[in-house]
Design goal:
single chain; alpha+beta; 10 helices; five-stranded antiparallel β-sheet; globular; four-stranded parallel β-sheet
Length: 271
């Protein structure tokens, strides 16, 4: 069996190279020849293989590969749903518990959002969480204590405003789901930031999730059509975010559990 590992040409730091090498090595041990291709290369080349492991967010490329007849994991639609925090919230609404959230109205240029922000603030209270709809590693996520702070962050980019869950400040759980299984989990902690992301200085420790947390994480991944995903759950059990291609090396180093072989086992079962 042969596959393509599709990655972003413009994200080539050491942590990304380490991840890509690990995935290729794990695939080889699983009897799969995995060939690394960047989205720049695939923009002009015809892709050949039994499947694509799509470790990027270039959804237009992912969809084009699907239209060419290739099986893509995760699918372009699943990646798009996870990449847009507003779409994630809408898709999971009524399926899993989530913090109260308000989605900015669509505008076509930088516009006055003061009326929307004021109305949302009345319902959410302060502090509240401002999130641009597109972003990774906790970037573009801010805790705001006033309308003025929120207004200072707004650009032409879409955003959501979310209720701040004080009991989970700097703390959450990351559950790694593959198929219908929770393969591994960690508790993440940050004493200096309300965001628990390791990239922002947080730490992690192995964690045994509750049955309810596993049920919510699995339901979230199924609702988003994910073959595999990392689900962030707050201390009160609410789903905060879902990642279609979470960085698995940190979790492996923490728990000793390698998620990569399980991903390839699941892919093999689906093609």
């Amino acid at each position: 069996m042969t596959g393509i590992l599709a990655v972003n040409h413009f994200l080539n730091g050491e942590k990304f190279r380490q991840l890509h090498s690990h995935l290729i090595s794990a695939a080889e041990k699983s009897g799969i020849e995995l060939v690394l291709k960047t989205n720049l290369e695939l923009a002009t080349q015809k892709a050949k293989g039994d499947f694509v492991l799509f470790w990027d967010k270039d959804v237009n490329l992912a969809r084009r590969l699907e239209k060419s007849g290739l099986a893509v994991f995760n699918s372009s639609e699943s990646i798009a749903l996870c990449d847009d925090k507003a779409r994630t919230y809408i898709e999971l609404d009524g399926i899993v518990p989530q913090p109260e959230t308000y989605i900015s109205p669509k505008c076509y240029c930088e516009s006055d959002m003061s009326e929307f922000v004021s109305e949302a603030a009345v319902r959410l209270g302060f502090p509240l969480v401002f999130k641009e709809c597109f972003g990774s590693f906790g970037q573009q996520v801010h805790l705001c204590g006033s309308i003025q702070e929120v207004m200072g962050l707004i650009s032409e980019k879409p955003f959501i405003l979310q209720k701040f869950i004080a009991s989970s400040a700097g703390r959450d759980k990351r559950l790694e789901i593959v198929g219908d299984r929770c393969v591994s989990a960690v508790r993440r902690m940050n004493e200096n930031d309300f965001r628990s992301n390791v990239t922002n200085g947080g730490t992690m420790e192995p964690y045994t999730p509750t049955a309810e947390e596993i049920e919510s994480a699995t339901a979230a991944c199924n609702a988003l059509g994910l073959t595999f995903g990392g689900v962030d759950i707050l201390e009160n059990g609410m789903v905060c975010e879902v990642n279609s291609n979470a960085h698995i090396i940190n979790i492996m180093n923490c728990t000793g559990i390698d998620i990569a072989p399980v991903i390839f086992e699941e892919i093999r079962s689906r093609i």
